[in-house]
Amino acid sequence: MSKNIMQSRHDEYHKLTRGERIGYGMGDFAQNLVFGTIGGFLALHMLTVNTISTATAGFIFLFVRIINVFWDPMVGTYVDKRTSKAGKYRPWLIRAGVPLVILSALLFAPIPGVRGSVPFAFIVYLALDLVYSVVNIPYGSLNASLTRDPESIDKLTSTRMMLANSANLLVYTLFPMFVQMASPKDRSLKDTGFFGIELNLGNYTDPSANYAWFGVYSVYMLIGAAALFICYKFTKERVVATAEQTANVKTTDLFLELKHNRPLVILGLFFMLAFTFMFFMNTVNGFFNQYVVGHSEWMGAVGLVASIPGIAFPIFWPKLKKIFGKKGFFHIFLAMFIVGELLTYVWSREGNARCALACLHRDLH
């Protein structure tokens, strides 16, 4: 604990290099690529290709979310109390990252005899979600351990959001298009909405598309695994609690903190609502385009328009924070989020959805 800790303490205000910022941001890229695809398309795959009933799929998702409420604090406590030569948080990117990739691919795997199997889908998804917490929680803690330098932290936030949204671009723009390109049934030449580009696309909601889903997702998993390794390789923990400081950490600490810390409760409720909206929209997006709009081939174009601001805007975040302050900056983007949700509701009403996306389709030509 002597030399390494003293060096770590001396280096706490380290100025992160661009390579270090990108290296850490690759963790966001990997997780959005792996788990973002699960969040955005697993329900569609489960109900259409895997032919599991809506009620059963809904129960699986709900049950796993409830388990997470108790599992996540346990993971946080376990990670905080342990360390290794490679660090306290970094090793989990590899230890849990490899099982995460394998379990993710299994959910789309066209294994003979398990299509439509509820026990298989339930066990694999539960295991995946538990393992995801073992990657995501240490990864979030790793962020705070890189440096205490405020300028580096601001730049790191911008970099990781750019990379996270770049992964979203691959997920919500290209993934459905690639799967449709590989799907064998009902193939025809369709206008994708990408500036007049037409592609020969198939029906990716038919059970015959199971190999198409698995093939495309496997490529994404390999990219995600490589990104996690890059994150592990290019990050260094500098701000880490000692064994003495974490000795009394307990699983119940979070719940006790919520009891006495009102600002934390408010912040927690905000994140709960924000992520509920986000996951809900991501999950229903495929169904919305397939069954309401009637043009699944437009998903790529819509995803592109939605992803561009998320990639471009983070560049300006540090300057906007200086101008408006953190609280003002938060209020501006919260207002934009609310307006966006209201517009989505208006456009999704019967008769407006087709019109809105038809206009988008026309404008992209």
Automatic annotation (TrEMBL):
Transmembrane region(s): 21-46, 52-71, 92-111, 117-140, 161-179, 211-232, 264-286, 298-317, 329-347
Cell inner membrane as UniProt keyword: no
Signal sequence coordinates: none
Keywords from the UniProt entry: Membrane, Transmembrane, Transmembrane helix
GO MF, any single term: symporter activity
A biological-process GO annotation: carbohydrate transport
Membrane keyword on record: yes
InterPro entries assigned to the protein according to its UniProt record, in alphabetical order: MFS_2, MFS_trans_sf
GO cellular component: plasma membrane
Record-stated family: Belongs to the sodium:galactoside symporter (TC 2.A.2) family.
Protein name: Xyloside transporter
Organism encoding this protein: Klebsiella grimontii
